[in-house]
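Methods — Computational structure assignment.
A single polypeptide chain was analysed. Its primary sequence is given first, followed by the predicted tertiary structure written as structure tokens.
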Amino acid sequence: MAIAHYRKAIVLSPEMFQGYSNLGLVYIDLQRYQEAAQAFKQALALGADSVATYRYLGLAYYRLKQMNLAAHYYEKQVQVEPTSALAHNNLGFANAYLKRYEESEKSFKAALLLDPNLGNATRGLCLTSFALQKLDQALEFCERAETSFSDAAIEYLLGMTYLDLGRYGKSLESLEKALAMEPKDIKIFTALGEANYKFGRYQEA
């Protein structure tokens, strides 16, 4: 019903952006992200609030895994809303997906300066710091992320960071936690094999 009424509003007042913005929000809720992106782009062309529209366009393209477009719109959001920690955080994850780790790191650090309690930015810095092989920094942020919210991804990154730092016992602890959460993840088994090898555990269990 909502979609039909918003479409009727657009037909009656095609020059007004509100109908397109409302339609885009419905499509976001329905996870129809391609249609959401089209609606928000039309709303933007008609003068819709740029901050919210850039945010939703970034989200729609992120969900579609069109990360170049997601990063483009999140960058636009940062430009018009530079004090938004979430805007910097979202841009950080889009760039991390694109393996633009140095840009991603800058975004996550900017997010944490604006909101030191933003857990997702801490997770992001765990990821990007390890990818950049800034191991001491990775350890700091991965341990902080584990304290606030632990999952298999964080335990894996923490285990790999310990492994690269030569702390094999700690690496095994974190990797075992990761495996308990994701018991069929091949990369965790591979990492456990390497950690056990370097720790001198060669025998089959």
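Note: Residues 161 and 200 are 18 Å apart (CA to CA).
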